[in-house]
Amino acid sequence: MYERLKPLFFRLNPEQAHDLILGLMRLAGYLSPVRKILRSIYSWEDSREILFAGLRFPNPVGLAAGFDKDGTAWRGLSCLGFGHIELGTVTPLPQSGNPKPRIFRFPEQEGIINRMGFPGKGASFLLNKIPPRGSSPERDRFILGVNIGRNKNTSNQAAREDYLACLRFFYHRADYISINVSSPNTIGLRDLQGKEFLNDLLGNLVAERDRLVVGKDNRLPLFVKLSPDLSDQELDDALDAVTTSSADGVIATNTTVQRENLLGFDPGLTGGLSGKPLKDLSTDLIRKIQHRTGGKLPIIGVGGINSAEDAREKMVAGADLVQIYSGLIFQGPGLVKELIKGL
Protein backbone atom coordinates (compact mmCIF):
# COMPACT_ATOMS: atom_id res chain seq x y z
CA MET A 1 0.00 0.00 0.00
CA TYR A 2 2.77 2.44 0.91
CA GLU A 3 4.50 1.90 -2.44
CA ARG A 4 1.29 3.05 -4.14
CA LEU A 5 0.91 6.10 -1.90
CA LYS A 6 4.57 7.08 -1.80
CA PRO A 7 4.56 8.92 -5.17
CA LEU A 8 1.62 11.01 -3.95
CA PHE A 9 3.40 11.90 -0.71
CA PHE A 10 6.57 12.74 -2.61
CA ARG A 11 4.70 15.21 -4.83
CA LEU A 12 4.16 17.31 -1.73
CA ASN A 13 7.02 19.26 -0.27
CA PRO A 14 8.65 17.23 2.52
CA GLU A 15 7.23 19.20 5.44
CA GLN A 16 3.69 19.10 4.00
CA ALA A 17 4.00 15.33 3.50
CA HIS A 18 5.27 14.89 7.03
CA ASP A 19 2.42 16.95 8.48
CA LEU A 20 -0.11 14.92 6.46
CA ILE A 21 1.27 11.57 7.66
CA LEU A 22 1.45 12.85 11.23
CA GLY A 23 -2.17 13.99 10.98
CA LEU A 24 -3.27 10.58 9.73
CA MET A 25 -1.41 8.86 12.57
CA ARG A 26 -2.94 11.28 15.07
CA LEU A 27 -6.44 10.47 13.77
CA ALA A 28 -5.73 6.73 13.81
CA GLY A 29 -4.66 6.99 17.43
CA TYR A 30 -8.12 8.04 18.51
CA LEU A 31 -10.03 5.39 16.51
CA SER A 32 -9.92 2.03 18.25
CA PRO A 33 -10.94 -0.03 15.14
CA VAL A 34 -8.18 1.63 13.09
CA ARG A 35 -5.61 0.93 15.81
CA LYS A 36 -6.59 -2.75 15.78
CA ILE A 37 -6.28 -2.92 11.99
CA LEU A 38 -2.86 -1.25 12.04
CA ARG A 39 -1.62 -3.61 14.75
CA SER A 40 -2.90 -6.64 12.83
CA ILE A 41 -1.00 -5.53 9.71
CA TYR A 42 2.22 -4.12 11.10
CA SER A 43 2.88 -5.46 14.59
CA TRP A 44 5.09 -8.47 15.21
CA GLU A 45 5.13 -10.09 18.62
CA ASP A 46 8.74 -10.57 19.67
CA SER A 47 9.23 -13.25 22.32
CA ARG A 48 12.40 -11.51 23.53
CA GLU A 49 12.16 -8.73 26.08
CA ILE A 50 15.24 -6.52 26.08
CA LEU A 51 16.55 -5.16 29.37
CA PHE A 52 18.29 -1.88 28.61
CA ALA A 53 19.33 0.74 31.17
CA GLY A 54 16.86 -0.71 33.66
CA LEU A 55 13.92 -0.60 31.23
CA ARG A 56 12.18 -3.55 29.59
CA PHE A 57 11.78 -2.96 25.85
CA PRO A 58 9.30 -5.26 24.03
CA ASN A 59 11.52 -5.29 20.93
CA PRO A 60 14.76 -3.61 19.75
CA VAL A 61 13.27 -1.18 17.18
CA GLY A 62 12.30 2.41 18.04
CA LEU A 63 11.22 5.63 16.36
CA ALA A 64 13.84 8.36 16.57
CA ALA A 65 13.15 11.85 17.88
CA GLY A 66 11.94 14.42 15.37
CA PHE A 67 9.03 12.53 13.86
CA ASP A 68 6.48 13.38 16.57
CA LYS A 69 7.88 16.52 18.17
CA ASP A 70 4.74 17.53 20.07
CA GLY A 71 3.45 14.09 21.08
CA THR A 72 0.26 14.33 19.04
CA ALA A 73 0.50 11.03 17.14
CA TRP A 74 2.28 8.50 19.38
CA ARG A 75 -0.88 6.39 19.86
CA GLY A 76 -1.21 5.75 16.15
CA LEU A 77 2.53 5.36 15.62
CA SER A 78 2.74 2.79 18.40
CA CYS A 79 0.43 0.53 16.36
CA LEU A 80 3.17 0.15 13.75
CA GLY A 81 5.03 -2.15 16.14
CA PHE A 82 7.71 0.05 17.67
CA GLY A 83 9.27 -1.11 20.92
CA HIS A 84 9.90 2.50 21.87
CA ILE A 85 9.07 5.96 20.57
CA GLU A 86 11.12 9.07 21.30
CA LEU A 87 9.15 12.33 21.29
CA GLY A 88 10.63 15.81 20.73
CA THR A 89 13.04 17.47 20.51
CA VAL A 90 11.10 19.63 22.99
CA THR A 91 12.21 22.97 24.41
CA PRO A 92 10.89 24.69 27.56
CA LEU A 93 9.12 27.44 25.58
CA PRO A 94 7.30 27.22 22.23
CA GLN A 95 9.28 28.33 19.20
CA SER A 96 8.77 28.39 15.45
CA GLY A 97 12.13 26.96 14.42
CA ASN A 98 14.07 28.00 11.35
CA PRO A 99 12.53 29.59 8.23
CA LYS A 100 10.97 27.36 5.57
CA PRO A 101 11.82 25.48 3.40
CA ARG A 102 13.79 23.43 5.90
CA ILE A 103 13.51 19.78 4.76
CA PHE A 104 15.01 18.49 1.50
CA ARG A 105 14.75 14.96 0.07
CA PHE A 106 17.33 13.13 -2.04
CA PRO A 107 15.25 10.09 -3.13
CA GLU A 108 17.86 8.40 -5.32
CA GLN A 109 20.26 8.23 -2.39
CA GLU A 110 17.54 7.88 0.26
CA GLY A 111 18.88 10.87 2.14
CA ILE A 112 17.26 13.86 3.82
CA ILE A 113 18.68 17.21 4.87
CA ASN A 114 16.76 19.07 7.56
CA ARG A 115 17.37 22.39 9.26
CA MET A 116 14.23 22.47 11.39
CA GLY A 117 15.72 24.16 14.46
CA PHE A 118 13.52 22.53 17.15
CA PRO A 119 10.09 23.91 16.15
CA GLY A 120 7.43 22.94 18.66
CA LYS A 121 4.69 23.95 21.03
CA GLY A 122 6.85 23.69 24.12
CA ALA A 123 7.15 21.52 27.21
CA SER A 124 3.74 22.30 28.72
CA PHE A 125 1.94 21.22 25.55
CA LEU A 126 3.89 17.97 25.24
CA LEU A 127 3.43 17.16 28.92
CA ASN A 128 -0.34 17.21 28.45
CA LYS A 129 -0.01 14.68 25.62
CA ILE A 130 1.77 12.05 27.73
CA PRO A 131 -0.44 10.12 30.16
CA PRO A 132 1.15 8.44 33.18
CA ARG A 133 2.34 4.86 32.82
CA GLY A 134 -0.43 2.50 33.93
CA SER A 135 -3.17 4.82 32.69
CA SER A 136 -4.04 2.86 29.52
CA PRO A 137 -3.04 -0.27 27.55
CA GLU A 138 -1.75 1.96 24.73
CA ARG A 139 0.61 3.77 27.10
CA ASP A 140 1.96 0.55 28.61
CA ARG A 141 2.49 -1.27 25.32
CA PHE A 142 5.93 0.25 24.66
CA ILE A 143 8.63 2.58 26.06
CA LEU A 144 8.09 6.33 25.61
CA GLY A 145 11.12 8.62 25.70
CA VAL A 146 11.42 12.41 25.49
CA ASN A 147 14.27 14.20 23.72
CA ILE A 148 15.06 17.60 25.28
CA GLY A 149 16.94 20.67 24.03
CA ARG A 150 17.46 24.35 24.68
CA ASN A 151 15.49 27.21 23.18
CA LYS A 152 17.09 29.03 20.25
CA ASN A 153 17.44 32.29 22.21
CA THR A 154 19.03 30.62 25.24
CA SER A 155 22.81 30.99 25.36
CA ASN A 156 25.01 27.99 26.05
CA GLN A 157 26.00 29.63 29.34
CA ALA A 158 22.34 29.52 30.39
CA ALA A 159 21.44 26.26 28.62
CA ARG A 160 21.68 24.20 31.80
CA GLU A 161 18.45 25.76 33.10
CA ASP A 162 16.54 24.85 29.93
CA TYR A 163 17.59 21.21 30.21
CA LEU A 164 16.85 21.11 33.93
CA ALA A 165 13.41 22.61 33.33
CA CYS A 166 12.62 19.92 30.75
CA LEU A 167 13.88 17.17 33.06
CA ARG A 168 11.56 18.39 35.83
CA PHE A 169 8.64 18.65 33.39
CA PHE A 170 8.88 15.08 32.14
CA TYR A 171 10.41 13.19 35.04
CA HIS A 172 7.13 11.60 36.12
CA ARG A 173 5.74 11.00 32.60
CA ALA A 174 8.60 9.83 30.37
CA ASP A 175 10.26 6.41 30.56
CA TYR A 176 13.61 7.97 29.69
CA ILE A 177 15.11 11.34 28.76
CA SER A 178 17.40 11.89 25.77
CA ILE A 179 19.65 14.96 25.98
CA ASN A 180 20.11 16.60 22.58
CA VAL A 181 23.42 18.46 22.45
CA SER A 182 24.24 17.45 18.89
CA SER A 183 21.74 18.97 16.44
CA PRO A 184 23.53 21.10 13.83
CA ASN A 185 20.44 23.26 13.34
CA THR A 186 20.54 25.40 16.50
CA ILE A 187 23.48 27.79 16.45
CA GLY A 188 26.14 26.81 18.98
CA LEU A 189 24.28 23.77 20.31
CA ARG A 190 27.00 21.30 19.34
CA ASP A 191 29.45 23.25 21.51
CA LEU A 192 27.62 21.70 24.47
CA GLN A 193 29.36 18.41 23.59
CA GLY A 194 32.65 20.03 24.64
CA LYS A 195 34.29 18.77 27.80
CA GLU A 196 33.59 21.77 30.04
CA PHE A 197 30.00 22.33 28.99
CA LEU A 198 29.03 18.65 28.95
CA ASN A 199 30.60 17.86 32.33
CA ASP A 200 28.66 20.73 33.88
CA LEU A 201 25.39 19.93 32.11
CA LEU A 202 25.39 16.19 32.81
CA GLY A 203 26.58 16.64 36.39
CA ASN A 204 23.66 18.94 37.11
CA LEU A 205 21.11 16.81 35.26
CA VAL A 206 22.15 13.61 37.02
CA ALA A 207 22.13 15.37 40.40
CA GLU A 208 18.64 16.70 39.73
CA ARG A 209 17.49 13.29 38.50
CA ASP A 210 18.77 11.67 41.68
CA ARG A 211 17.00 14.31 43.77
CA LEU A 212 13.73 13.62 41.96
CA VAL A 213 14.09 9.85 42.31
CA VAL A 214 12.87 10.01 45.95
CA GLY A 215 9.55 8.19 46.14
CA LYS A 216 9.89 6.73 42.63
CA ASP A 217 10.45 2.99 42.17
CA ASN A 218 13.05 3.38 39.42
CA ARG A 219 15.29 6.28 38.53
CA LEU A 220 14.70 7.82 35.12
CA PRO A 221 17.44 6.83 32.63
CA LEU A 222 19.31 9.70 30.95
CA PHE A 223 20.84 9.18 27.49
CA VAL A 224 23.07 11.62 25.60
CA LYS A 225 22.56 11.99 21.84
CA LEU A 226 25.93 12.46 20.13
CA SER A 227 27.04 13.86 16.78
CA PRO A 228 28.66 11.64 14.15
CA ASP A 229 31.06 14.50 13.37
CA LEU A 230 33.05 14.35 16.62
CA SER A 231 36.82 14.00 16.33
CA ASP A 232 38.44 11.19 18.30
CA GLN A 233 39.47 13.64 21.03
CA GLU A 234 36.00 15.20 21.17
CA LEU A 235 34.47 11.73 21.40
CA ASP A 236 36.80 10.79 24.25
CA ASP A 237 35.88 13.99 26.09
CA ALA A 238 32.15 13.37 25.59
CA LEU A 239 32.35 9.75 26.73
CA ASP A 240 34.38 10.79 29.76
CA ALA A 241 31.61 13.25 30.70
CA VAL A 242 28.93 10.59 30.19
CA THR A 243 30.66 7.96 32.31
CA THR A 244 31.88 10.35 35.01
CA SER A 245 28.39 11.78 35.49
CA SER A 246 26.80 8.30 35.63
CA ALA A 247 24.47 9.06 32.74
CA ASP A 248 22.89 5.83 31.52
CA GLY A 249 23.92 5.59 27.89
CA VAL A 250 24.24 7.27 24.51
CA ILE A 251 22.25 7.55 21.30
CA ALA A 252 24.55 7.38 18.27
CA THR A 253 24.02 9.35 16.19
CA ASN A 254 22.35 12.62 15.30
CA THR A 255 22.53 14.00 11.74
CA THR A 256 25.78 14.99 10.04
CA VAL A 257 27.01 18.16 8.36
CA GLN A 258 29.31 16.08 6.14
CA ARG A 259 28.33 15.67 2.49
CA GLU A 260 30.89 13.20 1.14
CA ASN A 261 28.25 10.52 0.58
CA LEU A 262 25.66 12.83 -0.99
CA LEU A 263 25.80 13.62 -4.70
CA GLY A 264 24.07 16.44 -6.56
CA PHE A 265 23.40 18.76 -3.66
CA ASP A 266 23.66 22.55 -3.49
CA PRO A 267 26.83 23.37 -1.49
CA GLY A 268 24.92 26.22 0.12
CA LEU A 269 22.27 23.86 1.51
CA THR A 270 22.82 23.87 5.26
CA GLY A 271 21.37 21.41 7.75
CA GLY A 272 21.81 17.91 9.09
CA LEU A 273 21.98 14.96 6.71
CA SER A 274 20.22 11.72 7.62
CA GLY A 275 19.27 8.51 5.85
CA LYS A 276 21.44 6.09 3.89
CA PRO A 277 24.38 8.54 3.39
CA LEU A 278 24.72 8.63 7.20
CA LYS A 279 24.72 4.85 7.69
CA ASP A 280 28.44 4.05 7.72
CA LEU A 281 29.37 7.21 9.60
CA SER A 282 27.01 6.42 12.46
CA THR A 283 28.03 2.74 12.54
CA ASP A 284 31.69 3.73 12.74
CA LEU A 285 30.97 5.96 15.73
CA ILE A 286 29.05 3.16 17.46
CA ARG A 287 32.05 0.90 16.95
CA LYS A 288 34.38 3.52 18.44
CA ILE A 289 32.12 3.99 21.47
CA GLN A 290 31.95 0.24 22.02
CA HIS A 291 35.75 -0.03 21.83
CA ARG A 292 36.50 2.98 24.02
CA THR A 293 34.10 1.95 26.78
CA GLY A 294 34.81 -1.78 26.68
CA GLY A 295 31.19 -2.49 25.80
CA LYS A 296 30.01 -1.24 29.20
CA LEU A 297 28.02 1.79 27.97
CA PRO A 298 24.49 1.13 26.65
CA ILE A 299 24.09 2.36 23.05
CA ILE A 300 21.03 3.07 20.91
CA GLY A 301 22.10 3.04 17.26
CA VAL A 302 20.45 5.28 14.68
CA GLY A 303 21.38 6.50 11.21
CA GLY A 304 20.61 5.11 7.76
CA ILE A 305 18.75 1.93 8.73
CA ASN A 306 16.74 0.78 5.70
CA SER A 307 16.85 -3.00 6.16
CA ALA A 308 17.36 -5.73 8.73
CA GLU A 309 20.95 -6.06 7.51
CA ASP A 310 21.55 -2.37 8.28
CA ALA A 311 20.13 -2.88 11.77
CA ARG A 312 22.31 -5.95 12.32
CA GLU A 313 25.38 -3.92 11.36
CA LYS A 314 24.55 -1.41 14.09
CA MET A 315 24.09 -4.15 16.67
CA VAL A 316 27.26 -6.03 15.69
CA ALA A 317 29.10 -2.70 16.04
CA GLY A 318 27.82 -2.40 19.61
CA ALA A 319 24.26 -1.04 19.65
CA ASP A 320 21.77 -2.70 21.99
CA LEU A 321 18.71 -1.09 20.37
CA VAL A 322 18.12 0.74 17.08
CA GLN A 323 15.96 3.66 15.95
CA ILE A 324 14.67 4.64 12.52
CA TYR A 325 13.27 7.80 10.95
CA SER A 326 14.38 8.41 7.34
CA GLY A 327 13.98 4.69 6.58
CA LEU A 328 10.33 4.96 7.55
CA ILE A 329 9.88 7.68 4.91
CA PHE A 330 11.62 5.81 2.11
CA GLN A 331 10.60 2.21 2.95
CA GLY A 332 7.24 2.74 4.65
CA PRO A 333 5.74 1.45 7.91
CA GLY A 334 6.35 -2.21 7.01
CA LEU A 335 10.03 -1.58 7.77
CA VAL A 336 9.36 -1.90 11.51
CA LYS A 337 8.11 -5.47 11.22
CA GLU A 338 10.89 -6.32 8.76
CA LEU A 339 13.52 -5.18 11.25
CA ILE A 340 11.99 -6.98 14.23
CA LYS A 341 11.64 -10.24 12.30
CA GLY A 342 15.08 -9.90 10.75
CA LEU A 343 16.76 -9.28 14.11
What's the rounded overall pLDDT mean? Answer: 95
DSSP summary: helix tally: 13
SSE ordering? HHHEEEHEEEHHEHEHEHEEHEHEHH
Number of extended strands: 13
Highest-level CATH class: Alpha Beta
* CATH T-level topology: TIM Barrel
| Domains, number | 1
Strand content: 15-25%
The termini sit apart by: 24 Å
Low-confidence stretches: none
Broad structural category: alpha/beta
- Which percent range fits the helix content? 25-40%
Name the strands of the widest sheet in spatial order: 3-4-7-8-9-10-12-13
Radius of gyration, Cα only, in angstroms?
18 Å
Q: The biggest beta sheet, please?
A: 8 strands, parallel, barrel
Please tell me what the overall shape is: globular
The CATH superfamily label reads Aldolase class I
- CATH-level-2 architecture: Alpha-Beta Barrel
